[in-house]
C-alpha cells in the first residue's frame, strides 16, 4: 500500500507530493519530496533521478524553484528531492545538533557520515541517501524502478551527487551537477564541514572529495555533466571547477563542463538549464526502446 503523503497536488499530469518517515539512520523524522510522472502505475515502474540540494535548503526548494516537473513528466522520470540534513521536528526539536552558522549543522549535512561529536548521533546523510531513502521509496509503494537510478545536485548537493555517484557507479547510471563544490578539501565551506564532521585527520576527508576520488581512480562510465555560472560569487573561492577538469583529464573521466556568462548561483540559473540535465540522464535511464 502506498504511504499517504503529507501533501500532494497534480502537476503536468503527474503528482507532486511530500512524504514523511521515521529515519533509523538519522535518528529523527524526515521529509522528502517526490514528483511521480503520469506514466507511472503499479504495472509500469519508472526510473528515478535523485536531486540533492545545497546549503540552507530543504526538500522543498527544488520542487518550487527548479522547474523540473514539465520535462520529467514528458520523459516519464520520477524526481526525488531529499532534505539536506537531519532535523529535530516535533518532539525531537532539541535532539538534533545544530550550529549558528548557515554552513554547518542543520541544512548543511554535506552528504557525509559524521563520526565526530555531536554530529555522529544523527548526521549520516551518505547512508541515508544511498541506502535508507531508496528502501523507503520501495517500502512506501511508490512505482519506482531501483535498477534505473541517476543522481544530480546543486552546490553542496552537487558535491553530494558527484561523490555518491563516483563511489557507486553500478547504482547510478549517470551524474550531473550545477555549480558543485568539487574539492571540499580545498575550500572554506568544505574544510569547515569536513573537519567538524570527520575530525582533524584530513586523510579521512578524501572519501568525500570528488577531485580526490577521481585522482585516486574513481570514475564513471557515463559522461558527467556540470553547468557553472561565470557570475557565481562563490566560483573562485568555493567551487573551483578547474580542479575537477584537471582531475578528469588526468584520469580519463569524460566530463562536459559548460560555463555560462551572466549566470550566478541561484535557482534562476538552475531553472535555465534543468531541462538539459533531465535529458542527459534520460539517455542513460531509458533502454533502447525508450521505456
Explain this structure.
This protein is of the alpha/beta class and 291 residues long. 32% of the residues lie in helices and 23% in strands. The protein has 9 helices and 9 strands. It has a 9-stranded mixed beta sheet, with helices on both faces. The chain starts with 6 loop residues before the first strand and ends in a 6-residue tail after the last helix. The relative contact order is 0.14.
* Fourth-level CATH superfamily: Alpha/Beta hydrolase fold, catalytic domain
| Order of the strands making up the biggest sheet | 1-2-3-5-4-6-7-8-9
Determine Rg (CA atoms, Å).
18 Å
Structural class by sheet pairing and helices: alpha/beta
What tags apply to this protein structure?
single chain; 291 residues; alpha/beta; Rossmann fold; nine-stranded mixed beta sheet; 23% strand; globular
Amino acid at each position: 500500500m502506498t504511504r499517504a503523503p503529507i501533501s500532494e497536488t497534480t502537476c503536468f499530469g503527474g503528482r507532486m507530493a511530500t512524504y514523511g518517515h521515521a529515519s533509523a539512520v538519522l535518528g529523527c523524522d524526515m521529509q522528502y519530496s517526490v514528483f511521480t510522472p503520469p506514466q507511472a502505475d503499479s504495472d509500469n515502474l519508472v526510473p528515478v533521478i535523485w536531486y540533492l540540494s545545497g546549503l540552507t535548503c530543504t526538500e522543498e526548494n527544488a520542487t518550487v524553484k527548479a522547474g523540473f516537473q514539465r520535462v520529467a513528466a514528458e520523459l516519464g522520470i520520477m524526481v526525488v528531492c531529499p532534505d539536506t540534513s537531519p532535523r529535530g521536528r516535533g518532539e525531537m526539536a532539541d535532539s538534533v545538533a545544530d550550529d549558528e552558522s548557515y554552513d554547518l549543522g542543520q541544512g548543511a549535512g554535506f552528504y557525509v557520515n559524521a563520526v565526530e561529536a555531536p554530529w555522529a548521533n544523527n548526521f549520516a546523510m551518505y547512508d541515508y541517501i544511498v541506502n535508507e531513502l531508496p528502501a523507503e521509496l520501495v517500502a512506501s509503494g511508490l512505482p519506482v524502478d531501483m535498477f534505473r537510478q541517476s543522481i544530480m545536485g546543486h552546490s553542496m548537493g552537487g558535491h553530494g551527487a558527484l561523490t555518491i555517484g563516483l563511489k557507486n557507479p553500478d547504482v547510478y547510471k549517470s551524474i550531473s551537477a550545477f555549480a558543485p563544490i568539487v574539492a571540499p578539501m580545498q575550500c572554506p565551506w568544505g574544510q569547515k564541514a569536513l573537519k567538524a564532521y570527520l575530525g582533524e585527520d584530513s586523510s579521512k576527508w578524501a572519501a568525500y572529495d570528488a577531485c580526490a576520488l577521481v585522482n585516486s581512480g574513481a570514475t564513471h562510465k557515463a559522461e558527467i555533466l556540470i553547468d557553472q555560472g561565470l557570475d557565481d560569487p562563490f566560483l573562485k573561492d568555493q567551487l573551483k571547477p578547474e580542479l575537477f577538469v584537471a582531475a578528469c583529464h588526468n584520469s580519463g573521466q569524460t566530463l562536459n563542463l559548460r560555463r555560462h556568462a551572466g549566470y550566478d548561483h541561484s535557482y534562476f540559473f538552475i531553472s535555465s538549464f534543468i531541462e538539459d540535465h533531465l535529458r542527459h540522464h534520460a539517455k542513460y535511464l531509458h533502454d533502447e526502446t525508450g521505456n
